[in-house]
Prior knowledge:
This protein is of the alpha+beta class. The chain has helices spanning 4-53, 57-71, 114-121, 177-239, 246-271, 284-299, 320-336, 383-388, 406-416; strands spanning 76-82, 88-95, 106-108, 125-127, 149-157, 160-169, 280-283, 303-308, 315-318, 342-353, 367-376, 420-425, 431-438.
Amino acid sequence: MTTPQDLEQPASSARHSLDPVAAELAARAANRQLAAKAAQQAAVARLGQLALDQRDLQGLFDAVVGTVATVLDCRFAKVLELRPDRLSLVLRAGVGWNPGTVGTATVAADRGTQAGFTLASAEPAVVEDFERETRFAAPPLLPDHGVRSGVSVPIPGADGFFGVLGAHSNGVRQFSHDDVNFLIAVANLLASAIERSRLEAQLRQAVKMESVGRLAGGIAHDFNNILTVILGQTQLLRAGLDADTALDAELAEIEHEASRAAALTRQLLAFSRRQMLRPEKVSLNRIVSGLEAMLQRLLGEDIGVETREADDGGWVKADPGQLEEVVISLAVNARDAMPTGGALRLAVESVDVGSNHPAVGREMPLGPYVLLTVSDTGVGMDRATRDRAFEPFFTTKPAGSGSGLGLSMVYGMVKQTGGFVYIDSAPGEGSALRLYFPQVDPDDTIATAASGSETVPPA
């Protein structure tokens, strides 16, 4: 007698006969997954060693995109760098893209693009098929290359994000959890290398500035004493002459030129932090407001002067005369950067610098500061000019139009007070110098003291 179980037996046997095939396929898939993960881990190790050895960031970027494309089996890979205006990203390195695209192609940094969405969300963005994607649109760069899928992760930076690391394919594709983790690991390696490069550049600049400062200070110290003798002897000679004689006029010219040279040595001594100081409690509000009328006359009618004061007075410990020289020097620089007119803004505010304070170097101790921002609407500076702006005798002005000591003097004076100075500028976008001074309590007692070397000030 045939039972229902007997009738089902052949079908059951067929199923069991297929199980080994399915198991074999599953095993192969698992092996491929393990092999892919091992390849990714090996690639991360290689790139980690390269990041330690490589001092050329562009070379590291190029190696990263090549490795990412190979390991993920993608035609395209990219490193997008966030521009200073934070409105767009530029293709810093890539493989698979059309000739001339790397270094020139840009992508908007808003949430409407994959890269912008990645930065805004601070998380990976995976796209299986751009034709079905609803969170954001593909920027022209992707459809122009026939891209259908992709994955991108943020590259951390010192003050937010450096940019985006990504990979793309022409076909519809699912990127695995391991793929995403691989990109995150590589992005973190890049972030470490970028930060190390930034700190090394800061160190090199600090060493160079210190060396130049010592040299300038030593020369200025000796030259200052020579000028003191010249000025003293000239004044003694003039004292014995009638004011309307030709010899007195010639001596007056000598005295005038020697006084100009003495002013230059004072600037050099300020840069090298060897100038005599008379620090006291002073309100930056009062310094700025007291100079406003004079600055308006100095800059001319084509340049407007705007000031904003701190609510608490902006009290610092500094030499008032030096602070006035700083403000005037920055105003003159701003005037020269606005030949057709513009606006100069001076803003004083009290700020508490914490560990996440934006755009502040890590050498700056945390705590309360008074920030003086001097900004203009002038021609601005490119990166190369910004990097050398505080060097003595460096100037972009024509020969005979400037000594190149203005910003170096500002740098030295701010450093003498224990402060810090930074430049934000871009061609065509004006400049903003941010001067941070340690804040003091106006009710605290501060002893007035002179500091510096044995330099004899010129008469």
